[in-house]
Amino acid sequence: MSAKLDLSGWDPEGLKVLVRVDFNVPLDGDRNITDETRITAALPTITFLSGKGARVILMSHLGRPKGKIDPAFSLRPVADRLAELVDVPVKFALDTVGPDAASRAASLQPGEILLLENLRFNPGETANDPSFAGALAAIGDAYVNDAFGTAHRAHASTVGVPQVLGGGRAGFLMEKELAHLGALLNDPARPFTAVLGGAKVAGKVDVILNLLERVDHLLLGGGMIFTFFHELGLNVGASLLDKESFEVAREISRRAKTSRAELILPEDCVVADEFSDDAATRTVLVTDIPDGWMGLDIGPRSRERFGKVIAGSRSIFWNGPMGVFELPSFAAGTRAVGTAIAEATKNGAVSVVGGGDSVAAVNSMGLGEGISHISTGGGASLEFMAGRPLPGVKALSDR
Ligand code: AMP
């Protein structure tokens, strides 16, 4: 249970409740929603509030329109889809703090739902501009945040609005995310293993440093390992290097010597002569990467070692692929880790997967069902695991 006020025991009947949701869904060229997970994840909160007779005013961003109105980023397709998923009327406002939103909010009946247009059409959203936050707050009586995926951002809709309205409540999705991630961070069953991958070290430094003191095993894979190998004096050929992170990679390796966690890097990798699915490939020890070849996945020895560590763990956190999993030739490492985590979960471990790419990998490999909790927030779950307070959570009322 989180320390923040949630929806339980609340009677919002008749109130205009401003709900920050994360409807930042992927759209194809014809503006069809290609993955509606983020919409369905917010339904429990939306239907609860509507069922209690609240006037539900939903706010979200979609993509990065950079403070300008851009029809390509309109939330209209989301409103249309939402209307099919709930059995109460869903209205759509053509603006956020303009006359259309104001009049539609004013005429909203208890139980009805109104979705405002993309918050990021207004530069005040990401700037957390007080006048934009004030204007948003003016159309509601109470605030709920169910957008875990943006809780690490101090924007008008995540921080400014609850400040004006004197706090707010966590929605069901927010509550669930905080409960799962909080349990892992504060009271994990041990051994606790974290698996981190992805392209870059930058952006993961704080989470790596924090996890080194909290977990028992820290497994690193993905493109970022070559930055570590380079700093250990190995030849990495044409592999990805995150030049800005050389110094911090050295610092991480140094700290790992005395940290609680055992830091485990891959022993072998799959190298390719070019970045392509039909490149020539070889499996080599990380000490033997040939000039001109690039490491695009962890190798079979590493898959086995990582699998054994995962199998012996009772708590597991995973963020970031082990290789270029989008190309089938380099997906084996990511698949092995996903499969091992699902297997460990079946045997009683608690597993949490966070981050867009690892979630996409888990789902595309059909392993989603085997994971205890799949986080809807990539950046937010990393910030949380880095031990940093999330501004959007801090802004909510204490229990
Ligand atoms: P990130 O956004 O840092 O989590 O990185 C995710 C991306 O890292 C995915 O698109 C992967 O294809 C990519 N990636 C993983 N391993 C490698 C690698 N060895 N070389 C280059 N890119 C990689």
Helices and strands in order:
Layout: E1 16-20, H1 37-51, E2 55-59, H2 76-85, E3 90-92, H3 99-106, E4 113-115, H4 130-138, E5 142-145, H5 156-164, E6 169-170, H6 172-186, E7 192-196, H7 205-214, E8 217-220, H8 225-231, H9 246-256, E9 262-264, E10 268-272, E11 281-285, E12 294-298, H10 300-311, E13 315-319, H11 332-346, E14 350-353, H12 356-364, E15 373-374, H13 378-385, H14 391-394
Parallel strand pairs: 1-2, 1-5, 2-4, 3-4, 5-6, 7-8, 7-13, 8-9, 13-14, 14-15
Antiparallel strand pairs: 10-11, 10-12
Helix pairs in contact: 4-5, 7-9, 7-13, 8-9, 10-11
Adenosine monophosphate is lined by residues 198-200, 222-223, 240, 295-296, 320-321, 323-324, 326, 357.
Task: Provide a descriptive summary of the structure in words.
The chain is an alpha/beta fold and 399 residues long. It has two domains: 16-174, Phosphoglycerate kinase, N-terminal domain (Rossmann fold, 3-Layer(aba) Sandwich), CATH 3.40.50; 188-385, Rossmann fold. 36% of the residues lie in helices and 15% in strands. The chain has 14 helices and 15 strands. Strand 3 (90-92), helix 3 and strand 4 (113-115) form a beta-alpha-beta unit. Helix 4 packs across helix 5 (156-164) and helix 8 (225-231) packs across helix 9 (246-256). The N and C termini lie close together (10 Å). The structure holds adenosine monophosphate. Residues 198-200, 222-223, 240, 295-296, 320-321, 323-324, 326, 357 line the site of adenosine monophosphate.
